Amino acid sequence: MLAAVLGALATLFTIRGIRLSARVSLVLELVSVSIITLLLVFTLVHLGANAFDADQFDLSGAKPSGIAVGMVLAILGFVGFSSADALAREAKDPYRAVPRAIMWSAAGVGVLYVFAAYTQVAALGPALGDSAQPLNDLATLVGMPGWFNPILDFGIAASFFAVVVAPMNVIGRILYVMGKEGVVPSAIGRTHPTHLTPHRALISVGPLVIAVPVVLYLVGVDAMDVVTWVDTYGTYGYMVAYAAAAIAAVVFLRSIKVRVRMVWPAAALAIGSMAYVFYANVYPVPAYPLNVIPWLFLATVAAALAWYWILSRRSPEVIAKIGTSDMETLEGIG
């Protein structure tokens, strides 16, 4: 029920406009981060001298393969930091605002991520692995009053809402451009007559965002497993996108004959890291159903490549047009 409500609201806000959806997401995320940060600080105060957990700084016994497996969900924690780039056409000063948004988002999320992970491990120890609601467990450990848990749950739900809105804004605009270029039906490449947002693309994505978790939950899959499975599958997509963006950066800079010293090392590191993380999640073969998810993702990639091949045969002019759209604003009302 919550997934359906959040998905429907996310679709509504993204159709209403990027300014509204961004402001709502920002307010909700600030509320969520404030609540969670407050709980984490109280937890460290409660631990007292035990707040310093030396074991977390000891990497003996840590294996690269084990770290790589955990990196899938760790990458998920950063997903969304790059969403600002898809909104550049709608920003007032994109060449200044977008780089700042990306860099500060990554830095801020990184600090919060490390702080939250450290505090939960220090407080819950091995029990963290068996906890379905670690933040609620922290609240119980600290002795927070009963009215705090509903507020905490609201903060978590608000964070989920913001996490849904950011990718939907990006996906909607990607589909919109694909519609303009003929990769998908041209009807998707239209904007709302009043809000000037890619409403058809967003309406196409919204039901899928809602349906996947709802169907899994209805067939009896545990809620935490739903989150893990869906997030793992989605993170693979982001990993491929990040690696592709790294390659594109190198190719683009070469095409315009601009040299940036750190691009090559950064691209090589990004591509190598993403490739290794994916490999470590395939071999050694993990337990079911995590062993199936990488292959489901590869099947999706294969389907996309097959569609590309079909287009190249049937409509080579569409292939030639891909990536040529250079619109300062979203256009094509209808």
Reported by name, the CATH topology is Amino acid/polyamine transporter I
Query: Could you name the CATH homologous superfamily?
Result: Amino acid/polyamine transporter I
**Secondary structure category:** mainly alpha
Strand count: 0
**Termini gap:** 32 Å
Strand content: under 5%
Count every helix, treating DSSP H or I runs of 4 or more residues as helices. Answer: 11
Task: Give the topology, please.
Blueprint: H1 2-16, H2 18-47, H3 64-78, H4 94-124, H5 134-142, H6 148-181, H7 199-218, H8 223-255, H9 263-280, H10 293-314, H11 316-321
Helix pairs in contact: 1-2, 1-6, 1-7, 2-4, 2-5, 2-6, 3-8, 3-9, 6-7, 7-8, 8-9, 8-10
Transmembrane segments: 26-47, 67-89, 101-127, 147-171, 201-221, 233-253, 262-280, 292-311
Protein name: Amino acid permease
GO cellular component, one term: plasma membrane
Explain how this protein is built.
With 334 residues, the protein is mainly α. The protein has a single domain (1-321), classed as Up-down Bundle (Amino acid/polyamine transporter I). Helix content is 70%, strand content 0%. The chain has 11 helices and no strands. Helix 1 (2-16) packs antiparallel against helix 7 (199-218), helix 2 packs parallel to helix 4 (94-124) and helix 7 packs antiparallel against helix 8. It is globular, with a radius of gyration of 22 Å. The chain starts with a helix and ends in a 13-residue tail after the last helix. The mean pLDDT is 83.
